Amino acid sequence: MNLQKTKGIVLNQFKYSETSIIVNILTKDFGKMSFIINGVRKKRSKFPANNFQAFNIIELVFIHSNKSDLHRITEVSSDTILNDIIFDIHKSSICMFLAEMIHLTYQVSEKDEQLYQFLEHLIQYIDNSPTESIANIHLWSLLRLMQFSGISPENNYSKTRPYFNPVEGRFTNENKKNQFIYSTLNSTRINQLLSSKIEDISYIEMSRKERQELLNLMLQYFQLHLESFKTSKSLDILNELFSS
Predict the structure, then answer these.
(1) Angle, helix 89-105 to helix 235-243, in steps of 10 degrees
(2) Same domain flag for 175 and 230
(3) For the segment 142-198, what is each residue's pLDDT rounded down to a tens digit?
(4) How many whole angstroms separate alpha carbon 154 and alpha carbon 168?
């Protein structure tokens, strides 16, 4: 029996049978992996379902399969207690959306300690920050996920290059070269988010409408540069939440 122990960040889950689920987890030591968990939907389950909510940070022991992409967890426990995310609908919706985006954009099943450490810090920052200060955090995070996916835009913004061209992934001085060129406002926002540290993003002022428009443009960027990318199912939830 090939038992392994590691930490992991839950990305998503879906129903496999009446009592079982499949969970996708970004592990610290093995990259992104899929696990089948039997009996989790029973009343007296060995593995409580709340362990597998999106962006939970867990410790797990599992049987590593050499014959299948599905592995089996034998032990699981919370590594980091999240105090606010589970009770705050804004935070939990942002986490669900970002977790799904990671699942959709990060396809390599190899160890990536930089990505793992980035996400741990991001989750803890969201959990510990006032809700009103993280309205832009999903936008800032998406630009960092582009970097981990190998499609990061070049931040060559200047007064002479004020328009962002998502096809080329860089700023340009031409605003009519193709239909995708961002407006001056949206280009400025991209530059601000690229240049800002996580602690400073609350100072970037945007209305709900502007934030939603920029989110849609970023998803378009993923579609332009990642052939396998599909629109996130949680986008509608996020748009509804922040447009109300």
Answers:
(1) 150
(2) yes
(3) 999 999 989 999 999 999 999 999 999 999 998 776 678 999 999 999 999 999 999
(4) 9
